[in-house]
């Protein structure tokens, strides 16, 4: 009896730990959108920003790899994986993110990122990785409705002239969805999440360098300014948050970890208010509510037990 009570208390503490980690993921990742806007506010080109972002991420993930004593895999399938993920998950979506966030409020970018699972759903259907569901189709429709509310003239956008940026802002979520579908379909070639991300970050750094130089977007971050500090903090956070996400998904299950999507979007809106002084309109809050409702319907279903 005493043993059962102790186990129950330990289980309860474990559940609260998972909840705390989930909140950390949402609050932390939500902050990267306004931090990204601060990083882009001085007019540096997207590929210059991506280059220094990858430098920070390689440094952080490399330090973690040294502590773990578990480095990158260098097999041909792993190298191919790094290149594909670097292009689909870094160069293209981050390039469009930094371009878009320089023109759009960070709060709107936080709402747009919620379209990733909605865009991934039809891809999974096409590849036979998921089954049709009327409820999830309704979630996809709500996601499109949320974007429509953002684009409606005189609604959420501070200036109607910004509407042309919305399709560019949606390129990032589209490629994140393609990347997620690719990884789910092909796997990580036997690597864990940290190994995969270190390799992809180092590859992204190597691929970004010539693009940055050819487009003339290179710059020195010294002396460090507010924008450079924001970029460094955002990049370091992303590396640490991803490491945390991998641990949570492995320990509490991927379905539980996926719930961080709601918190990322909501926290991004709150961080934009706190850090940038943004004042979302009523229509923007409505678009957020519609998008989160769609996200709730599209989220993957499955058991919430520990998954290997």
Largest sheet: none
Order of helices and strands: HHHHHHHHHHHHH
Indicate the mean pLDDT. 86
Counted beta strands: 0
> What is the oligomer described by this structure?
single chain
Describe this structure in words.
Residues 302-308 have low confidence and may be disordered. This protein is an all-alpha fold and 308 residues long. It has helices at 2-40, 46-68, 76-101, 106-112, 116-126, 134-151, 165-169, 171-186, 193-214, 226-252, 254-258, 260-276, 282-298. The radius of gyration is 20 Å and the shape is globular. It has 13 helices and no strands.
Protein topology:
Elements: H1 2-40, H2 46-68, H3 76-101, H4 106-112, H5 116-126, H6 134-151, H7 165-169, H8 171-186, H9 193-214, H10 226-252, H11 254-258, H12 260-276, H13 282-298
Helix pairs in contact: 1-3, 1-4, 1-10, 1-12, 2-3, 2-9, 2-10, 3-8, 3-9, 4-12, 5-8, 6-13, 12-13
Provide tags for this entry.
13 helices; disordered C terminus; 308 residues; 76% helix; mainly alpha; 0% strand
What's the quick description here?
The protein is mostly helical and 308 residues long.
């Amino acid at each position: 009896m005493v043993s059962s009570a102790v186990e129950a208390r330990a289980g309860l503490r474990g559940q609260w730990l998972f909840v705390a980690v989930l909140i950390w993921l949402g609050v932390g990742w939500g902050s990267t959108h306004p931090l990204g806007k601060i990083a882009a506010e001085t007019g540096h080109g997207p590929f210059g920003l991506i280059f220094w972002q990858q430098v920070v991420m390689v440094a952080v993930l490399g330090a973690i790899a040294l502590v773990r004593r578990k480095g990158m895999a260098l097999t041909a399938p792993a190298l191919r994986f790094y290149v594909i993920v670097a292009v689909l998950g870094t160069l293209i979506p981050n390039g469009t993110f930094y371009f878009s966030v320089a023109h759009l409020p960070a709060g709107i970018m936080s709402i747009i990122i919620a379209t990733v699972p909605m865009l991934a759903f039809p891809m999974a259907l096409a590849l036979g990785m998921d089954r049709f569901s009327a409820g999830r189709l309704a979630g996809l429709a709500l996601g499109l409705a949320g974007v429509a509310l953002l684009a409606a003239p005189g609604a959420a956008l501070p200036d109607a002239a910004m509407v042309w940026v919305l399709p560019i802002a949606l390129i990032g979520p589209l490629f994140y969805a393609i990347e997620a579908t690719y990884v789910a379909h092909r796997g990580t070639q036997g690597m864990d999440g940290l190994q995969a991300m270190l390799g992809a970050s180092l590859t992204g750094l190597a691929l970004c360098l010539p693009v940055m130089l050819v487009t003339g977007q290179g710059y020195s971050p010294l002396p460090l300014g507010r924008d450079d500090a924001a970029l460094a903090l955002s990049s370091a956070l992303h590396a640490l948050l991803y490491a945390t996400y991998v641990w949570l998904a492995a320990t509490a299950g991927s379905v539980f970890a996926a719930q961080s999507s709601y918190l990322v979007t909501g926290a991004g809106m709150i961080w934009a208010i706190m850090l940038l002084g943004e004042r979302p309109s009523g229509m923007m809050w409505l678009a957020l509510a519609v998008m989160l409702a769609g996200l709730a319907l599209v989220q993957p279903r499955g058991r919430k037990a520990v998954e290997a």
